[in-house]
């Protein structure tokens, strides 16, 4: 599996949410609403999730293993770091 496209929408409001990302895999499958979040130890990604009836959040789509999660996170965070700090700027590119 190769990530063939990354599209990032930077969030300029105050808060921990820094961007919302869509990735395309093998030019055939897309995952929307991956979040770039600033935590105590730096930036990380959160996969798309939904709130359940008991108030918990569960991932809608996610990697099966930690190696794949780390690879996806690194690709997204590298692209995010390359983006200008301009408001409403959309960064995109083929990996």
From TrEMBL:
Pfam family membership, one: SpoVG
Keyword Membrane recorded: no
Keyword annotations of the record: Cell cycle, Cell division, Septation
Keyword Cytoplasm: no
Family according to the record: Belongs to the SpoVG family.
PANTHER family, per the entry: SEPTATION PROTEIN SPOVG-RELATED
Function in brief: Could be involved in septation.
Entry protein name: Putative septation protein SpoVG
Organism name: Aequitasia blattaphilus
